[in-house]
Amino acid sequence: MGAERARDKTLKLNCFSDHKDLLDLFEATAHQQAQSPSRTYITSEQYGVRKVTRVLTLQFTAAPFTATVGGRKGDGMILDMQIRDSIGNEYGKAKDVVGEKRMAFTSLADASFDVCFENYFASSQGGRGIRDPTRYIELDIDIGADAKDWSAVQATEKLKPVETELRRIEEMVSEIVAEMDYLRTREQKLRDTNESTNTRVKWFAFSTMGMLVALGAWQVIYLRAYFRSKHLI
Q1: What global pTM score does this model have?
Q2: Is there a domain that residue 29 lies in?
Q3: Whether the predicted pLDDT of 207 surpasses 80
């Protein structure tokens, strides 16, 4: 999503059809405010989107993000942004978002959150006179070391700028080490699976060859006995 992704952090985009070239740049087309949007789901490996409401579902304990919304005030459209969890609790809300908007939220535990964007017409007359009723939205999500407010950490712990930067680099290195450990574990599991599969294939091949040899020997013995009973040999 135009931001660093950490291990075990799920990220998917719930949206409509019409694929774009970039996942972190999508469109929200205006509609009448009373209209009820429907939702479909695509994974973060796919691209979206174009239609009424955009919902980004992410699983984090804390996730500051920046939304950059195209358009301008008074262009006949209003784009609202809302953050809520899976049971409907609201963690943040912004009305008539234009330009860059940065928000952050913190939960007590990892959970799925919806970052919703809805673009609707400001007038009840609909989009009359509006040539392109579309807002372009770019969403960047920061996680891990990039998600921390290091200015607040520096002020709280009374650190020097160099010490703060070293702390940030230390956390980034720790994340890289954890990621490498995770990849090494995955590689070990994959290697064990490959070795087990190779062993099974080898013994299956030996068993097949043994069965073929035994079947051939049985056929020879049976045919010799048959021909002897018929006095052919």
Answers
A1: 0.47
A2: yes
A3: yes
